[in-house]
Design brief:
A nine-stranded mixed beta sheet has the order 7-5-2-9-1-10-14-17-18, sandwiched between helices. The chain has three domains: about 5-105 and about 210-260, Adenylosuccinate Synthetase, Chain A, domain 1 (3-Layer(aba) Sandwich), CATH 3.40.440.10; about 105-200, Adenylosuccinate Synthetase, subunit A, domain 2 (Orthogonal Bundle); about 265-425, Adenylosuccinate Synthetase, subunit A, domain 3 (Adenylosuccinate Synthetase, Chain A, domain 3, Alpha-Beta Complex). By secondary structure, it is α/β, with parallel strands linked by helices. The chain contains twelve helices and 18 strands. It has helices at about 20-25, 80-90, 110-125, 135-140, 155-175, 185-200, 205-215, 250-255, 285-290, 315-325, 360-365, 395-405; strands at about 5-10, 30-35, 45-50, 50-55, 70, 75, 100, 105-110, 220, 260-270, 270-275, 310-315, 315, 330-335, 345-350, 370-375, 410-415, 420-425. The chain starts with 6 loop residues before the first strand and ends with a strand. The structure holds inosinic acid.
Length: about 425
């Protein structure tokens, strides 16, 4: 049997690059699809039997009947919400039994975390998804959060651990936020109810994945959010709380990074950002409206987790070069090229005035002035084209310009919303 490639798929910008579709394509040559960071803040839209479905925590590989899906130790997991997703999939005829593997080392998002974030966001305005991600990771770092594996240790253990949280953190929050938390007993009961159904799926993941990666290959690590939302490398503090770049794979799945053959980075043909924070190539209101779409199509630029309109702007090649280095990027998947049809001229930021690298601090990022290269647009519908050479010359030139600036090949091009609307450029 031919050894399959082990591949990491990451978003290169601020998330929403259309990862689900490319992951879906690559899953055909994978055995396992593994999420390594984040939690229910992600929103991976997929279409099943003509219906749109958003997966937040379960990897999109679950749609393929023979693939195993892993939720890694680097995630923070809203356990009851996983069950909701699985029941939703069941209604669409998808059988997930025996195909899910959840790391016992993953931390939980507790109801407390969501309550705390709701209040904190009102003051702070990062524009988070309010899925409890930040407080859950914060408690993980403070070594006071609870791991999935602890639910199976029984109610007495769990109530003690949750009571510990309520005594230490809960008291602090109660004082400053006037907040009322559900009792440890109530939270434990709910977690145990879910564990009674999902407990068989809780298994160690690191050696399981290493064995597959070494023998048959076919491990597909599915990143959530995007590199510019990385806690370490993104536009801090307007970032998420996990390592979203390919570097998060070692940490979140407990894997030897040398086992991976390829890092595929997802970039939309233009940039978007949802939530607050600097966005150097954000376009004027009219151009944003054209890029965003009206909201009548599922692929228009409105958040799949929160429904918020996304901010839209020109392709930022300074960011691309920066994240290519951090991710050890091998190839680019460029999505939504069709959404540029009819926009003239097109612009790509090739550098920032006075600096070719991406600055480290918000104050500096807010001051950058992009230098644009203008390119001609095209007006033909490209959504039925499946061969790169058949694209209008201007569309080919746009793709080639991105390749040239990044010095990385574009291997996949999204030209429409459907599963099959992808141009694959062979090696
Ligand atoms: P959090 O991950 O909910 O803490 O949100 C932090 C920032 O990341 C906010 O600006 C969110 O809008 C953004 N964010 C989180 N998850 C996603 C995603 O899956 N796509 C795009 N943006 C995201």
């Amino acid at each position: 049997m031919q050894r399959l490639k082990n591949i990491i798929v990451v978003g290169l910008f601020w998330g929403d690059e259309g990862k689900a579709k490319i992951v879906d394509l690559l899953t055909e040559n994978a055995r396992v699809v593994a999420r390594y960071q984040g939690g229910a803040n992600a929103g991976h839209s997929v279409e099943v039997a003509g219906k749109r479905f958003v997966l937040h925590q379960v990897p999109t590989g679950i749609l393929h009947p023979d693939k195993i899906c892993v939720l890694g130790a680097g995630m923070v997991i809203d356990f009851p919400k996983i069950l909701d997703e699985l029941y939703g999939l069941e209604k669409l005829g998808i059988d997930w039994h025996g195909r899910l593997r959840i790391s016992p080392r993953a931390n939980l998002v507790l109801p407390y975390h969501k309550l705390v974030e709701e209040i904190e966001e009102r003051k702070r305005g990062i524009g988070t998804t309010k899925r409890g991600i930040d407080p859950a990771y914060r408690d993980k770092a403070a070594r006071i959060n609870v791991r999935i594996g602890e639910i199976g240790l029984g109610k007495v253990h769990l109530v003690k651990r949750l009571d510990n949280w309520l005594d230490e953190m809960g008291t602090l929050y109660e004082k400053s936020y006037e907040i009322e938390f559900p009792s440890a007993e109530k939270v434990a009961d709910e977690l145990i109810r879910v564990h009674d159904i999902l407990g068989d799926s809780v298994h160690e993941v690191s050696s399981f994945l290493a064995e597959i990666a070494r023998t048959t290959g076919g491990v597909l690590a599915e990143g959530a959010q995007g590199s510019m939302l990385s806690l370490n490398w993104g536009t801090y503090p307007f970032v998420t709380s996990s390592e979203t770049t390919a570097n998060g794979v070692g940490e979140g799945l407990g894997m030897d990074m040398r086992l991976f053959d390829e890092v595929v980075g997802l970039a939309k043909a233009f940039c978007t950002r949802v939530g607050n924070g600097p966005f150097p190539t954000e376009a004027d209101v009219q151009t944003q409206a054209k890029l965003r779409g009206t909201g009548e199509h599922t692929y228009d630029e409105f958040g799949s987790t929160t429904g918020r309109p996304r901010r839209c702007g020109w392709f930022d090649a300074v960011v691309l070069r920066y994240v290519a280095t951090i991710n050890g990027l091998d190839a680019i998947a460029l999505t939504k090229l069709d959404c540029l049809t009819g926009i003239e001229p097109l612009k790509i930021a090739v550098e920032y005035e006075g600096s070719k690298t991406f600055p480290a601090t918000i104050a500096e990022i807010e001051r950058v002035v992009p230098v644009y290269r203008e390119l001609p647009g095209w007006h033909e519908d490209i959504s039925q084209i499946h061969n790169f050479k058949k694209l209008p010359d201007a569309a080919q030139d746009y793709v080639r310009a991105i390749e040239e600036i990044a010095n990385k090949p574009v291997k996949y091009i999204g030209v429409g919303p459907g599963r099959e609307d992808i141009i694959i450029i062979d090696d």
